[in-house]
Amino acid sequence: MYALEEIFPQTPMLPPAGSAEAARARELMALERTLFSAWFGWLRSAQDGSGRFEAAMERVCAELQRSGGPFFLGVEVSMVDLMFLPFAERMCASLPYYKGLRVRGDPRYAPFDRWLYALEEQTAWYAGIKVRARISERLRLPPRPALPCAERV
Q: Which long-range CB contacts under 8 A does 128-132 form with residues at least 24 apart?
């Protein structure tokens, strides 16, 4: 993703290096890794890891509210949004099936929902991602607990 900044400098997706906004972008990208870790750890575990996931989602929602939105760095899509998006879509597709949690439409995660809806408006680049993520939603797969990888055969 960072290579895109070098290849296409005329359309920057990150704030200028050394700025306060650039520091915020780095913090938000670290938060993306925190959210991914909480989601994927819970998804792969037979234990209840929902608390760690919910805490990470609360932080994500607080950052989205802080931004003045609808995106992580304000009114324009940025590299931060693009870093969050693939795993956000996977979370929305996998959690209803494996953990019985629907992130989309949950009032606790309203800023996250608004962010995804705003990204959906960006149809030129968003369409391909959306098709993949809606597979389990369209199939209406029932929730079931995840088994640890060692127990899957």
A: 129/85, 129/86, 129/89, 130/89, 132/89, 132/93
Q: CB neighbours of 7 closer than 8 A, spacing ≥ 6?
A: none
Tokens 């995106």 -> residue: 71
Question: Does residue 19 contact residue 28 with C-beta atoms inside 8 Å?
Answer: no
CA distance 130 to 133: 5
Q: What is the distance between the alpha carbons of residues 126 and 37, in angstroms, rounded to a whole number?
A: 24
Q: Which residue has the tokens 């990208």?
A: 29
Contact status, residue 99 vs residue 42, Cβ threshold 8 Å: yes
A 10 A CB-CB count for 31 gives: 19
pLDDT tens digits for range 29-65: 999 999 999 999 999 888 888 999 999 999 999 999 9
* Measured distance between the N- and C-terminal CA atoms of the chain, rounded to whole angstroms: 36
Give the global pTM.
Answer: 0.79
Q: Say if CB 50 and CB 42 are below 8 A apart.
A: yes
> Which residues, in sequence order, are CB contacts of 115 under 8 Å at separation 6+?
64, 69, 70, 71, 72, 81
